[in-house]
Amino acid sequence: MVFKDGRPDFSPWKEFEIEFKPGELNGTQKDFDLVYEKLVEMGMAKNKAQAKKLLKDELELTPDHFSETVIQMILSKIHGNVPHKGSASDMRNKADAIDQTTKEKDIKEDTKKGGAPKDDDDG
């Protein structure tokens, strides 16, 4: 297994990949629903449940985030035996950083306005 920047390159074991528009994927479980929807659109399954079963039980493939716009279908026996962090983790961390920055900005705005009322305030 070749690692690039500390991340495994599953490309030699991909059966196929699905490309998404920038911003569609966020590194969460919702991305897998998008994969199943794409498989339905591609005519590989009639619905999301069937698409999930197809990947897991029949094709024995695991969706893996290759990048912020590409999910590769990797042989499950390979993917499941390589503990790793990758693009999905990066996307979640990026989203968390944006959320934290937004929260900090909101707190600064509240402070400028006199602060949000606290639970122990009587008035």
Description:
With 123 residues, this protein is of the alpha+beta class. It has one domain. It has 4 helices and 5 strands. The strands form 2 sheets. Strands 3-5-4 form a 3-stranded antiparallel β-sheet. Strands 1-2 form a two-stranded antiparallel ribbon. Strand 1 and strand 2 form a beta hairpin.
Entry summary:
The protein has 123 residues and is α+β, with helices and mostly antiparallel strands. It contains four helices and five strands; from the N terminus they run E-E-E-H-H-E-E-H-H. The protein has helices at 30-41, 48-58, 76-79, 87-112, and strands spanning 3-4, 7-8, 14-19, 61-65, 70-75.
Domain count: 1
Query: Largest sheet at a glance?
Result: 3 strands, antiparallel
Put simply, the count of helices is 4
- In whole angstroms, the N-to-C terminal distance is 63 Å
> What is the ordering of alpha helices and beta strands?
EEEHHEEHH
* Global outline: globular
Work out the helicity level: 40-55%
Strand order of the largest sheet: 3-5-4
Number of distinct beta strands = 5
In terms of structural class, how would the helical and strand content be classed?
alpha+beta
β-strand percent reads 15-25%
Mean pLDDT: 80
Low-confidence stretches: none
Rg, Cα atoms, Å: 20 Å
Give me some keywords for this one:
43% helix
Ordered list of secondary-structure elements with their pairings:
Layout: E1 3-4, E2 7-8, E3 14-19, H1 30-41, H2 48-58, E4 61-65, E5 70-75, H3 76-79, H4 87-112
Antiparallel strand pairs: 1-2, 3-5, 4-5
